[in-house]
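Input for the complex:
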Amino acid sequence: MLNYDFKWSILWEEPYGGWILEGVATTLKLGALCCLFSFILGVIIGTLRITNYKPLRIFAEAYTEFFRDIPLLVQLFFWYFAVPSLMPETMRVWVYQEIPNFEFWVVVVGLSLYSSSRMAEQIRAGINSISPDQFNAALSTGFSHYQAYRYVIIPLAVRLVIPPLTTETLTVFKNTALAMTVGVLETTFMSQQVEAYTFHGLEATTAACVIYMIITLIVVGTMNWIEKMLAVPGLIIRKGANS
Amino acid sequence: MSFEWQVITNNFSFLMGGLLTTFQLAIIAISGGLALGILVGMARLSSIKPIYYPATLFVNLMRTQPLILVIFWFYFLIPIVLGNPIDAFTSAAIAFIIFEASYFAEIIRAGIQSISKGQVEAAYSTGFTYWQAMRYFIIPQALKNMLPSLITQGVVVFQDTSLAYVIGLREFLRSANVVDAREMRSVELYLFVGFVYFMICFSMSRICKRMELKKGAA
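Predicted:
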């Protein structure tokens, strides 16, 4: 047992340490982009799920079910392998040759769509927890439905869902690790590349674990900061709080 | 382009072999993860500090990690500890049990906390020990209360098993990938894989929703 020669120094040796740092940069970039897009999509889909117009509601419901019930890895493979072969020949060649970092953008699309369905669920729960009085009050001051959502309901809902969205943001960052399977050079990929070159997989993987831990702390810190920035003083909104 | 669905029928038994592996891994991961999760969940509520802190550390640590990395980590660690290489399935199963235990533990903890103090005191006052009270009173009720969350987590675990792909385990996704490498029919194969996963997970989440509605009505 433990007949293994630990060699932690590979982590700061050239070029391995540099690889891992490059990977971290890619992870952060990928995670931030996916968070942004999935949040925007999530707000749209989450709002559609509770509109009075039935076809839109059914569309949004189907959207969430569809992306939630298929493993993310299968979705990524679909975007990466299947979608290009559905394209016409000229377009496929263009996609492969002209888009720098094709696999990176594939993951941005795939992960954003996947995460948006989860974000939408949280946004919906947030909107549902706002008292209907708020909505009626907005309408009675002469707002249209769209304006009531745009200026009253969504600004309140976004603040309410920040705590659950913190969890989702973390999930997005953790899920960026799957990008390695289509060849994006992010943290997990780089740690496995170090393994391939040095056979010191345990050290490289442990280093990656520590990095994800630090990323988590940064994300939680940032979200807490956003929560404080956006907080409306003295605002407590709860459904049926006055009943 | 034209679709050629024969690629599915021609390789049907191979693909189903992969699906079987997926199911085996999922069942091991869910039952093992749940069993370990119950213990960790109990430890998370313990008043004994040397039990509480390691359990809390374990849960919080696991929840910061991507599963894919945990799978790799155990894949490298286990051969070092055992001194001889092991197969991908065993390695993946161990990684899944330990990783999913941290998620099940939080559900169990919430379940235990949802039970009124009176129940626990009633159990103690009839002369039950801690373990007996847990075994006969609290855990069964906690599991029952948390059944919808547990099923949801079960569906998540089922989907997560596709990540064992990365250490070369020939589960459902990997077997489609193997066929694809030979036949070059990505669209049909990944649509099929997605469809099968969707049908299984969608029907499970429907069952789950119905249970929640029933609970709400009762």
